[in-house]
Amino acid sequence: MAATTPRVLRLLALLQDRSYTGRELADRLEITERTVRNDISRLRELGYPVHAERGAVGGYRLGRGATMPPLLLDDDEAVAVALSIAVAADGSLAVSDLGDQLTRALRKIEQILPKRLQRKVSALHDATEIGPATTGSREPDAPVAAGILTTLADAVRRTTAVTVDDDIELEPYRLINWQRRWYLVAYSMKSHAWEAIPAARITSATAGHRVFAPRRLPDDDLVAFVMRHIATTGWRVHARVTVLAPAETVIARINPAVGVVEPVDDHSCVLHTGADAMETIAIYLSMLMMDFRVDGPPELVAHLRTLARRYTESIAP
C-alpha cells in the first residue's frame, strides 16, 4: 500500500468539506492537476469513494462507500465528537445496546487526540453530571458555545474563579446536563449565594487566576439542587397545589424536575410545580391519582373547571 503523505491527508480534508474542481485542488495544494489525479487514485486505493463529475459544475467529491474509511477532523470537530460520545455513554441516549460501542469509540478518539484537546474533553466530561431523562420539555433546545462550556469545565477542574458576562465572578462547582440543556452550579460573588445558572444565558466566560477553597455545597446531590431550581423557577408557568396526601407519598410519585414538595401535616403537603404550558400541569396533577386543591394561579383553576365539565359531559347518561 502506498504511503499516506501529508499532502494526501490535506486533500482528503478538503474533500470532506465540499466538492472541488481539479484546478481548485491544485491551487489549494500548490501542485499540478496531474498530481491531483494521482493523489485521488491513492485515496481510492485506501478505500475512500472519490467521485469525479464532468462538466462546468463538475469536480471531485467524496461519496458514500461500502466500508467505513478513516475520517479527518479538525480540532473543534474532534472535541465535539468526543464530547457527544462521552455524554451519550453516560446514559443520555435511551438505547440499551450502544454502551460498549460508545465506550470503544470514545477510547479510540481519546487515544489519538493531542493532549491539549484531550484536556478539554476530559475536563468537561469530569465536570458534568447527567440529569434524569424521565421528564420532558416542549421548550426549544438551548445551545451553548463549546468555548464557554470548556472554559467553565476547566475552571471546575482547577477550582479557579471565572468571570461571566464581563462583570460577574463565580466559583464554579459542577455542570449539569439535562434534556439537551446545560446548567452551571456555582457560588456567585455578586449575590453571595448558590445559583443554578442556565449556561445558555452566559454570553462570555473568562478564566480567572484566583484559586478558591471549596465551600460547603448547597446539597449533597447537585443534580437534585438543579432539578429543584428548574421546578421552582425554570418553567414558563408555575402553580401551588395542596395535595391531600403525606409528603413522602407525593415525592415518590413525581420527578424532581416536576415539583418541590413541602409537608403541611401527616395527611397533606404543598406541591410547587411548573411546566411549559398550563395544560401540562393539569396532566401532572391527574397522574398523581390523589385528591388535591389548586391554590393558584387562577388560570389553572379555570382550566381544570373546563376539563371537569368536558369529562362530565362526555359520560353517557
Automatic annotation (TrEMBL):
One of its GO terms (molecular function) is DNA binding. Residues 236-311 form the WCX domain. InterPro entries: ArsR-like_HTH, CBASS_pafABC_assoc_protein, HTH_11, Tscrpt_reg_HTH_DeoR_CS, WCX_dom, WH-like_DNA-bd_sf, WH_DNA-bd_sf, WYL_dom. Keywords: DNA-binding, Transcription, Transcription regulation. Pfam families: HTH_11, WCX, WYL. Residues 7-61 form the Helix-turn-helix type domain. This is DNA-binding transcriptional regulator.
